[in-house]
Automatic annotation (TrEMBL):
Pfam families on file: GDE_N_bis (PF14742), MGH1-like_GH (PF22422)
InterPro entries per UniProt: 6-hairpin_glycosidase_sf, 6hp_glycosidase-like_sf, GDE_N_bis, MGH1-like_GH
SUPFAM superfamilies: Six-hairpin glycosidases
The Putative glycogen debranching enzyme N-terminal domain, residue ranges: 8-190
Gene3D superfamilies per UniProt: 1.50.10.10
Protein name: Glycogen debranching N-terminal domain-containing protein
Organism from which the protein derives: Plantactinospora solaniradicis
Lineage: Bacteria, Bacillati, Actinomycetota, Actinomycetes, Micromonosporales
Domain Mannosylglycerate hydrolase MGH1-like glycoside hydrolase: 432-587
């Protein structure tokens, strides 16, 4: 299989081969996609009946790429008389500038053909191809080709035009050309996508034509985005590269759901190019000191879509924050529940956590006041609907037994929650990090109740509940003989005793008793969990451990960023630094772009981190990872109207400067340097 090339703008993206051609793939979403529908499934260029071969591919920007091509087999390169350039951008619509250059000293006749198809596949259908229920038609109109899909009121269209005269037919465009000696021919091909109507009881998509943005407009938008972000200078070149790549990728992942014009972070290319409650909330937490403009709109959108009624099909409950929203055909006709779907047990607490963190950084008490009702409803959900067994813990068990998510924590694959021997517990399940999030949400909710809602009685109630939860948790989840926290509790109250990375989230939340924190840190940086490239999701030696298993042994950058943050909270500065160094080292091997996950092989076994085969890249909370690590290393914490800077830098990282950090204090600069003092052969960590 030829290497794939991706460009994107929000949830509109194009995936092609290295020639720029698109052929439908049963395993990976190749094509032009927007709002969960494939608008182009074939986009294949031939010149004089020959497929093209790539000389080079330039990844110019996240929204722009360029292909340099010649006709014929590679053995013909030296004799090529024609060369072809395909320059493409995606910015609402899809634009391809096609240039053909004649290198001969005489006029040539050239037949150019572009084969075009659209299967209008729902993103959920890519791996599970289904016969379409609706009708697909191709219509040749004056100066354009219109491809349409209609199922009741659900309609999707692709409209293909060319600036140069073309012969259109139902399967594409043909150009019969004469190109003079040493001259060139060019045209601009545009594909506009139309989203209109819907099927299904709860989805109402308005007609929306994506406003096309030129590459110049998009470059200016990116320049403005980068200019607003803090400036990083560092002796560590991989850190600088990864930070800049992350800012650019986060810009690429911004998109506007149909219900708002605000731009929010989509979760990741290719499968998750939409808003995810958990992913978007954590991404905003990571990036808040760097790109605070994402957080307010994300909170408002999630508040607007908060559950108010019970709905088993969508796993919706009053006060619950959604998990995922989709706009494709399967959602419109209730074959999938994502309109939106509420199958996550953690997004609701994370909503309150982010709301508090946002106020701490920005001083925007107005938003806290505006979202008081939604925040109180979220806190009420924790106790009323989250506590399925009435024992003071947050549990999950799907209401939708047909196609709802079984595991509704961040490790949501089927085999992610297991006992140490590999057995799977029954439902409902109470994973440990859910309790940490609930504790943190109650503590932060108490702060907001005093600060903005002027309700000290409610604040005291939340603090009492948080204290009780912490006491119970440290009694029931602590595995005494191994001195670590169980991954979960089962329905009988027994410990699901696998050793996992989830413990690091507990440090971040503050629910860990001080006398247990050192053992947690020791396990996280011990050889069973720490690969040398990062903390594994599941420890070596556990029954289901697999270094290339999605949630059972791989290393997830976002997971590691929260773990480092938690270690720093409990005073384990050196351990946090080790994780930061490992992540930054890994980023070097991915061109500065940390993927969704990579293999958990021990670093002694591989000289580079091994790719996970189907990892999303870019992925939002992986783009946020370097930002949170920088915050952790510099010790950036808001304190009233001031920003506290308390750096703890690894020795090998040298000097770091972060300039123009935005917040309620205006703009502040932060500096840190790693250095070592030696006494004999002992290196002592200093700041």
């Amino acid at each position: 299989m030829k290497p794939l090339v991706s460009i994107l703008d929000g949830n509109t993206f194009v995936v092609s081969d290295s020639r720029g051609d698109i052929d439908p793939s049963p395993t990976f979403p190749t094509g032009l996609f927007s709002f969960d529908t494939r608008f182009l499934s074939k986009w294949e260029l031939t010149v004089n009946g020959e497929r093209l071969n790539a000389l080079s591919v330039d990844d110019l920007q996240y929204f722009e790429s360029q292909f340099f091509l010649v006709p014929g087999e590679p053995t013909h390169y030296i004799d090529a008389k024609l060369s072809i350039i395909r320059h493409r951008t995606v910015g609402g619509s899809f634009l391809e500038e096609l240039t053909i250059l004649n290198h001969e000293d005489k006029q040539v006749e050239v037949m150019v053909r572009l084969n075009v198809e659209s299967d209008f596949a729902d993103l959920f259908e890519i791996k599970d191809v289904k016969e379409k229920v609706g009708t697909t038609t191709a219509m040749v109109e004056e100066g354009r080709l219109r491809l349409c899909y209609q199922r009741e009121t659900f309609r999707r269209e692709s409209i293909i035009t060319s600036t140069a005269p073309a012969q259109y037919d139902e399967t594409g465009l043909t150009f019969a050309l004469r190109i003079d000696a040493h001259q060139q021919w060019e045209t601009k091909l545009r594909v506009e996508t139309l989203v209109e109507g819907a099927g299904g009881r709860d989805i109402r998509l308005s007609i929306q034509r994506h406003r096309s943005r030129t590459s110049e407009e998009m470059r200016q938008d990116l320049n403005d985005w980068m200019a607003r972000a803090p400036k990083l200078t560092s002796d560590n070149e991989p850190l600088t590269e990864t930070y800049e790549r992350s800012l650019i990728d986060l810009a690429a992942l911004r998109y506007s759901p149909l219900a708002t014009l605000d731009r929010l972070p989509a979760a990741g290319l290719p499968w998750f190019m939409t808003l995810f409650g958990r992913d978007s909330l954590i991404t905003c937490l990571q990036s808040l000191p760097f790109t605070p403009e994402l957080t307010g709109p994300t909170l408002r959108y999630l508040a607007m879509s908060q559950g108010v009624t019970l709905d088993d099909f969508r796993d919706r409950e009053p006060g619950k924050i959604m998990h995922e929203v989709r706009y494709g055909e399967s959602t419109a006709f209730e074959e999938q529940p994502h309109s939106p779907y509420y199958g996550s047990a953690d997004s609701t607490a994370l909503f309150v956590i982010l709301l508090d963190e946002y106020e701490r950084w920005t001083g925007d008490v107005g938003l806290v006041a505006d979202l008081e009702h939604e925040a109180r409803a979220a806190l009420a959900w924790i106790d009323r609907y989250g506590d399925l067994l009435g024992n003071g813990y947050v549990w999950f068990e799907r209401r939708n037994l047909r196609n709802g998510l079984e595991n509704q924590c961040w490790k949501d694959s089927w085999d992610a929650i297991s006992y140490s021997d590999g057995r799977l517990p029954s439902y409902p399940r109470a994973t440990c990090e859910l309790q940490g999030y609930a504790y943190d949400a109650k503590m932060r909710g108490a702060r907001l109740a005093r600060l903005a809602w002027h309700d000290p009685i409610y604040a005291e109630q939340l603090e009492r509940e948080a204290a009780g939860l912490k006491e119970r948790f440290n009694r029931d989840f602590w595995v005494a003989d191994g001195e670590y926290y169980a991954l979960a509790l089962d329905t009988e109250g027994g410990q699901v005793d696998a050793l996992s990375s989830n413990m690091g989230h507990l440090l971040w939340s503050g629910i860990v008793d001080d006398d247990k924190a050192a053992k947690v840190a020791e396990h996280l940086l011990g050889p069973r969990l720490f690969s040398g490239w990062g903390v594994r999701t599941l420890a070596q030696g556990e029954g289901r451990y697999n270094p290339i298993g999605y949630h059972v042994g791989t290393v997830w950058p976002f997971d590691n960023s929260l773990i480092a943050w938690g270690l720093r909270r409990y005073g384990f500065r050196q351990e946090a630094g080790r994780i930061a160094e490992a992540m930054i080292d890994a980023g070097r091997y991915f061109g500065g772009r940390l993927p969704e996950a990579f293999a958990g092989y021990d670093r002694a076994l591989t000289k580079y981190p091994v790719q996970y085969p189907t990892a999303c890249s870019p992925q939002a909370w992986s783009t946020g990872t370097p930002m949170l690590l920088i915050r952790t290393l510099l010790g950036l914490e808001p304190h009233g109207e001031h920003l506290v800077v308390d750096p703890a830098m690894p020795v090998g990282m040298g000097r770091m400067e972060l300039l123009d950090i935005p917040g309620r204090w205006g703009l502040i600069d932060a500096f840190g340097r790693g250095r070592a003092e030696h006494t004999g052969s002992v290196r002592r960590w200093t700041d």
